[in-house]
What does this fold into?
Amino acid sequence: MKVQGEKQERSNGNEGSTGKMTLVLASVALVSAFGSSFQYGYNVSVINSPAPYMQDFYNLTYSNRNDKPIDSAFLTLLWSLTVSMFPLGGFFGSLMVWPLVNNCGRKGTLLINNLLSIAAAIVMGTSEIAKTFEVIIVSRVVMGIFAGLASNVVPMFLGEMAPRNLRGAIGVVPQLFITVGILVAQILGLNSILGNAEGWPVLLGLTGIPSLIQLLILPFFPESPRYLLIQKGNEEQARKALQRLRGRDDVDDEIEEMRQEDRSEREEGQFTVLSLCTYRGLRWQLISIIIMMMGQQLSGVNAVFYYADRIFQSAGVEENSVQYVTVSIGAINVVMTLLAVFIVESLGRRILLLAGFGLCCVSCAVLTLALNLQNTVSWMSYLSIVCVILYIIGHAIGASPIPFVMITEMFLQSSRPAAFMVGGSVHWLSNFTVGLVFLYMEAGLGPYSFLIFCAICLATVIYIFFIVPETKNKTFMEINKIMAKRNKVEIQEDKEELKDFHTVSGGQAEKKSVSSSDL
It folds into this structure.
């Protein structure tokens, strides 16, 4: 009866069925996320608190070199570069995802990436001793490249290693560590700890420690089994990696699922970004990740954090205490993202996306009203605080973590690296754009800026409701078949297009008839 039950499960398409959280799987998730994602969050926030002391260092260094104080406009430019070079570097890092993960593997890319972080940390930590501020700006670019790679490779790596019933929860872990990194930077950046004239170089240099730990530990964990089997063609190593990750010898179901995916993709070969953007069979998947990534960054999260300090001050919080309130917001962010880890597999991805963006939309609308009336209605200041907290909750449970999970799940092995490259580029360009234009928006529109973010959140909710499917507890092939229905007309037209594409691009020689269900 047991054997018959196993056969029935396989015949029902349950390959790669449920698995448990093993020690190896948990360890590789923690080591990968701590060594990479943590630093992304840490470097987002690390220069906020010590900004006045770093600017004093810029001024003093410039004065010693030129025997005159720095011009205020030039200092503003230098500081703007210090802040904005991080997301710009993140964009360049995203452009490196496709070639690196295909040639060096997922684990290999993370190990190489650590060298960037360690080098940048050493340079930033010694910048005061060397009496040069230029290296800080350059190092921020390097850390951005590191973060751009990390923010894409870690979700891909963990998503390919996790069993399907844990893929969402493990996929949220990188975002959890991003929020933890932000919180740790906020705590260490307090004036009483390292956010002062003596401590800021140490604060910047600490970012290399997680990379060093990962560089020493990660080599002892397996590479992505999907990468080993589908891209390297090494089934034996893939099987051994799966056996370690699952804690059992019988991994035939998942191996068979990978073989099925491999057979389905032999017609396609490895997608480049150009071929991904021009292939109609993946049109709605590509549009979906672009919309979700733009919605994630253009929804106003940076603006809410920017406004948070003045909102709390208007509610009566003393200026000396605002730092601690900011830390409290960071703690809420961590707690709600941790909650998302536990509920994503029970509620599903789609409902968290809708609830997250919907809560952000409502919060922005009410926040616009509250900010405009807080000088005439006393309790509106407290309503503003509630809106900030609700916005952060919405972003933490859906808008921040789930889009990266969806990239992993909506694309198969051949197109996933290119998809992450596109999604990551959109993520960082949108981040850079908000940082570049928000101050001008705020100067021109004031609190009405949040109506723009409200509209973006609403548009994202509408798109997700009508287009994005639920992917919870489904194999990659099952999700691919669901998306094939979105591309039904295009897929049937693409039979000839796919052949023409590979005639031009030198695709793999092995051919077979393609049906819409295969794709």
